[in-house]
Structure to design on (573 residues):
């Protein structure tokens, strides 16, 4: 299920503005890859180009290659909708569907993919996803209450359950803990470590301790200069990047001597 | 904190003159509106009362005020609800097209044209309805009467002038379309990106995204906008007065000449020739219309306001 992602020569535009330039990197399966870097350097933009969400912004476009399982996501006859069914995403702010119950939130993706799934199988998948998201015991008694009634941390785990219910190959997370308290953050981090055995996970984070706690590989992004596009400065296994970085800019950033 | 522990317990901010003038003026305006509304209600009640107490045979039709007003109320509700049934789905479709599908330039132009419709005086719609639309409906309604005549709505005999309940409903639908569309469009436009992206990220197509994120978010606006439109259709006078051929009775037959009139159109047509107790009867019907539109509008506002609480992910 988990899949390798090979990014090569990726340029990402918003209209005429080049936000990210010439990124090439390999993202390994069954690993957690963290993307770090200062605000505005294009981490979210890059992440959203991995499931073709980027192009939903009017005028936005991508050139270069993102190869998933041997297939270029930006190939001529690739349907972005199918891409997104294989590459799930969790956002910075928890975004359960407010009018849907906990159950329906988790089932939402399944209903898109398998219209005629029998009830019993659906129940099973929903329970499995909620268990995998470490949420089952907390919501088993209120599966049919609104998902927006949960706490922020629970909502975020609900969103993770919703994303993994469709059994994607890759899970993208854009600062999934930045709206959460330390306890909920801990819960999500534990969850990421659990999920790593079955998914390729890419996480954007501003929290360098978090990157060190959860990731195997870390990529450091930076603006080439103010007003210039963001670039991938360096990518290495997490311990190396944080203790013996190859580039001075990385060293400055991870040691807090940035700017 | 020192600020919140003032000995008086209640905070008083010093008032500036400008603030005081402004708040006085706006309070005054608010009170004035309420006073006018109360005055209108009182006028209607006082003037309608003689019609309620008068002997039944003094009423037009000779069967008392309730039986006088009932067909008119029926006509009012039928035409307005029918107009709504046409306009509501159309306005949702237009709002979806404008906010989700159309190219930005097309969307802006179309939005502008729809808003312009709201500025057309209703007498123009009336003129257009009776001279253009009505003749156009003659053939189709003839076909309906012949082929679908077993449905009570199309029982016929089809009008040869086209001045039917159906034509009125079509004209009214066009008239309420702008307000319906405006309310729904605004709601769709404000669908939080967060909710849209939740759908996209699951691999929804655009129509699935609309069903999962946009429509649930806009649902109360659709209801609220529809009721505002309904309120307008209930009170519409000139277009109905000009288009509808009336001869009384309560009927669901939409395509014949024998239609109940509506309260507003009936008042406009009868008032100049009425005297004495007949005027009171008209005012009694006006009171009923007043109550119905007030209730519809208040419900609409309540539904629209409730949307504020339903802000989604918090
Ligand atoms: N919708 C958009 N339209 C135009 N420009 C955008 C848009 N979103 C982002 N940008 C620009 O693209 C660049 C990269 O933004 P991005 O959000 O990817 O940065 P980021 O690294 O995720 O920052 P943060 O850490 O603050 O989330 C920035 O210069 C930003 O202004
Ligand atoms: Mg970001």
């Amino acid at each position: 299920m988990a899949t390798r992602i090979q990014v090569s020569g990726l340029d990402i535009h918003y209209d005429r503005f080049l936000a990210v330039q010439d990124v090439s990197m390999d993202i390994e399966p069954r690993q957690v890859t963290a993307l770090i870097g200062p605000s505005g350097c294009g981490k979210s933009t890059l992440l959203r180009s991995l499931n073709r969400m980027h192009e939903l912004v009017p005028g936005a476009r991508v050139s270069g290659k993102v190869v998933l399982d041997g297939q270029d996501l930006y190939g001529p006859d690739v349907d972005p909708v199918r891409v997104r069914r294989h590459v799930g995403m969790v956002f910075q702010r928890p975004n359960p569907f407010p009018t849907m119950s906990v159950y329906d939130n988790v089932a939402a993706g399944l209903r898109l993919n398998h219209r005629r799934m029998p009830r019993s199988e659906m129940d099973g998948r929903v329970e499995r996803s909620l268990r995998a998201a470490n949420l089952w015991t907390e919501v088993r008694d209120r599966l049919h209450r609104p998902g927006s009634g949960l706490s922020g941390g629970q909502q975020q785990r609900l969103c993770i359950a919703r994303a993994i219910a469709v059994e994607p190959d890759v899970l993208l997370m854009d600062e999934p803990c930045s709206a959460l308290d330390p306890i909920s953050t801990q819960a999500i981090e534990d969850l990421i470590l659990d999920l790593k055995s079955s998914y390729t996970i890419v996480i954007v984070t501003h929290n360098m301790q978090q990157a060190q706690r959860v990731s195997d590989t870390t990529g450091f992004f930076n603006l080439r200069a103010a007003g210039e596009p963001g670039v991938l400065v360096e990518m290495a296994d997490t311990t190396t990047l944080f203790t013996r970085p190859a580039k001075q800019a990385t060293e400055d950033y991870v040691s807090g001597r940035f700017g | 904190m020192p600020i919140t522990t003032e000995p008086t317990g209640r905070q008083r901010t010093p008032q500036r003159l400008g603030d005081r003038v402004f708040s006085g003026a706006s309070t005054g305006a608010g009170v004035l509106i309420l006073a006018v509304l109360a005055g209108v209600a009182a006028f209607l009640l006082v003037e309608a009362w003689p019609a309620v107490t008068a002997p039944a045979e003094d009423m037009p039709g000779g069967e008392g005020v309730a039986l006088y007003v009932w067909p008119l109320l029926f006509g009012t509700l039928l035409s307005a609800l029918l107009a709504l049934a046409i306009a509501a789905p159309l306005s949702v479709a237009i709002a979806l097209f404008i906010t989700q599908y159309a190219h930005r330039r097309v969307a802006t132009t179309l939005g502008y044209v729809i808003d312009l419709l709201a500025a057309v005086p209703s007498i123009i719609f009336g003129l257009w309805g009776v001279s253009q639309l009505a003749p156009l409906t003659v053939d189709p309604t003839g076909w309906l009467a012949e082929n679908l005549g077993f449905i009570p709505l199309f029982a016929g005999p089809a009008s040869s002038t086209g001045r039917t309940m159906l034509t009125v409903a079509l004209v009214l639908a066009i008239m309420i379309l702008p307000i319906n569309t405006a309310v729904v469009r605004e709601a769709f436009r404000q669908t939080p990106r967060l909710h849209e992206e939740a759908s996209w990220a699951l691999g929804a197509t655009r129509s699935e995204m609309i069903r999962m994120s946009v429509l649930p978010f806009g649902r109360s606006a659709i209801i609220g906008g529809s009721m505002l439109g309904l309120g307008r259709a209930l009170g519409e006078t000139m277009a109905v007065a000009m288009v509808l051929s009336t001869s009384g009775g309560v009927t669901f037959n939409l395509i014949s000449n024998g239609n109940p009139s509506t309260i507003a159109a009936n008042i406009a047509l009868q008032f100049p020739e009425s005297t004495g107790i007949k005027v009171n009867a008209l005012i009694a019907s006006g009171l009923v219309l007043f109550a119905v539109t007030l209730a519809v509008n208040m419900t609409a506002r309540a539904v629209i306001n409730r949307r504020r609480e339903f802000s989604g992910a918090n």
